[in-house]
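Appendix C: a fully annotated inverse folding record. The material below is reproduced so that readers can follow the format used throughout the book. The structure is listed first as tokens, followed by the designed sequence.
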């Protein structure tokens, strides 16, 4: 009889701890930001190749990420010590752990990678993943789908991920 209430209490404490841990801000540290990769699987891309404005948008997203991480107290590391290895990687967001291994070589606390996939000129998806380098465990990460291939929609997507996932429970909006 006494076991059921104790089990229930233990479960409640475990769930509360999990919820609190999820809400806790990510501790600032050093980050190996391997950028945001653009993957165009659209018919338009197959016929005409990458549009120049989409390359510019990747730069906008990367600037937005750098600015927000700096605001939150994170420090980005210079990637030049791993440049040769990094240049051989097609997509650091999908490289079977090479992102974590390269970040460890830099002595980073975290590795950060992202990807934008263009399904069509109307349908796109974006993800951003933050991993700790000790075990390679994902600390935070999210994928969002969005409509409209514009600067505004891309920035809205990355800001949503940063606000509602990466820095959920953080001190800045």
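Designed amino acids, in order:
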């Amino acid at each position: 009889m006494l076991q059921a209430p104790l089990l229930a209490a233990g479960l409640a404490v475990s769930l509360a701890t999990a919820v609190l841990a999820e809400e806790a801000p990510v501790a600032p540290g050093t980050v190996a930001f391997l950028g945001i990769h653009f993957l165009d699987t659209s018919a338009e891309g197959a016929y005409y190749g990458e549009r120049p404005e989409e390359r510019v948008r990747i730069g906008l997203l990367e600037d937005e990420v750098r600015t927000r991480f700096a605001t939150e107290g994170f420090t980005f590391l210079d990637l030049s010590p791993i440049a040769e290895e990094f240049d051989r990687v097609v997509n650091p967001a999908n490289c079977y752990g090479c992102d974590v291994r390269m970040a460890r070589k830099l002595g980073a606390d975290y590795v950060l990678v992202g990807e934008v996939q263009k399904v069509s000129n109307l349908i796109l998806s974006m993800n951003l993943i933050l991993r700790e380098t000790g075990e390679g465990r994902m600390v935070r990460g999210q994928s969002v789908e969005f409509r409209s291939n514009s600067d505004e929609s891309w920035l809205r997507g990355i800001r949503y991920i940063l606000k509602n996932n990466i820095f959920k429970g953080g001190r800045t909006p």
